[in-house]
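Q: Entry one of two.
A:
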Amino acid sequence: MSELVKRIISAVILLSVYLFGFLYTGAYYIQLFVIGAFIILAGLSEFYRILERPGTQLFKNEGKFYSLLIALVFYLDLLFARFSHLFAGSSLYNLYSENLSFKIALLLVFIMLFHVFFIQISFRKIEGASYAIGASLMGVFYLAIPLSMFFQILSNAAGVYYILFLSLVTIINDSGAYFGGKLFGKTPAGIKASPNKTREGYLFGFAFSVLAALAFNYVWFLDANDQAAGSFVETIILALLISFSGNLGDLAESCLKRDAGVKDSANLIPGHGGILDRVDSLIFTIPVLYIYISLKEVVKIPVFQ
């Protein structure tokens, strides 16, 4: 079986699981939490393997444990938003109605910090302590918190629209940049983390992302008989923001892999490498979209209405 066929088969399976995860609501999004938890835990395993250095012992289990708790905190946000009629009046629901999820997540990060420092001071050698603790915490900030924001976006009234928009633009940007660079790439982008990237590839990625976003809005209006969440100008701006942040996410992972001297984060997915290789763009695009939506709700600008 050729590498291209493997990539296509894997991509179809991954896309099917991904869509099922957030489009099916019959099981209170439990399947989405399970998929998200697997991605975070498997991604952390790859991340810690990339960052591990001789003579240092990372806090892998602690990082995974607190990351799972953070994912659960954001999942509960989604649950209470989408099924508020089932939980209204409960003390836990009242707490979440005050938007405490980020505060709880930050508290968990600090608890992890105290936890790993206690272990390091009590049971491990001091040499390499700063790297071990820093790299372990970085995994939580790099993976768990950004990917858990997926639940926050989906809990929005227009959450399904935004998730589909995000997914389409991220995929099209990656594909457009790849094929544009392969077919027309002549001018190196001059990026040390990924020397093979070309300016033409990036331009094709941006252009196709904008076209795909505009087409999606048109189809969304026809199919759902509902106005898209953004205007024409906003769609272009948002598509470019997501494309740029997606490219940055890809380069960030390339930087980590190049520093560690590895080509792929793992070989878990045939033709695609590891989990990190698949979600590297989303690690940056999800937070950018979440911040954008949050700012949009606070700052009332006519062009974005």
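Q: Entry two of two.
A:
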Amino acid sequence: MSVTTRATALGFAGCVLLLACGGNGSGGGGGGGGGTCDNIEGTWTGSAQVDASACGQGTYTESGPLVITQAAGSCSISVAYYSYGSMSGSVSGSDVTFSGSYPKFSGTVTLDQVNLVVSTDQTTISGTITWTYKGGALTCGGSTAISGTKETST
């Protein structure tokens, strides 16, 4: 069974970074409303190096946007990850986490762990996402390395 699990972490392709959320992903863990955190709201673009070898898809690169929404003064975020839907998360200092799952082919991709860090000048984001695909008799996992830049307003 050919399964292209493009859980390209955060996106750049998607949700981290960001994109126009097309899909019916379900939000995962949330974050608190207070605390100290960077304001990371915006659209991030870049690339995601996906390792789906365990799923028979090898490694490949995706690119695109990741859109993060963050209310003023809040450490809670909403992340539009590629076209996989909107997911909930939080920012703690410069560390970004979010979780969720979304339908893909005849199964579901679940983001198991998201570890992203925003640069001190808040212009770049990078990190890794590990994920699991379950569909039919196939259960496999992979990882995605994300690297992106925040788009500037003109």
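A: Comment on entry two: The beta strands are 26-27, 42-52, 58-70, 76-80, 86-92, 95-104, 107-118, 124-135, 138-150. The two ends are 45 Å apart (CA to CA).
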